[in-house]
Amino acid sequence: MKRRKIEAVKLVRERGVSVAQAGRDLDVHENVLRKWVKEFGSDPVQAFPGPPRPDIRLTTRHFDLLIAAAIAWQMRHHATKP
Fold it and tell me: GO molecular-function annotation terms (predicted)?
């Protein structure tokens, strides 16, 4: 998706295609394309970052599961201790 946005912005900025024409050609609403051009223009390096990396969410989820397992183990261990 990021590549598509960058190519659409390049059509407008580098090739001089109007936003309206590029939007029609790419089947993207003109207002959406204007937003992409604006976002890319303010900081091309940081433009279109995409969703958060799933591995970060998994790590947090795994941490929560490990904590829950540790608590459950402690409760079982202490309950069976004389």
Answer: DNA binding; transposase activity
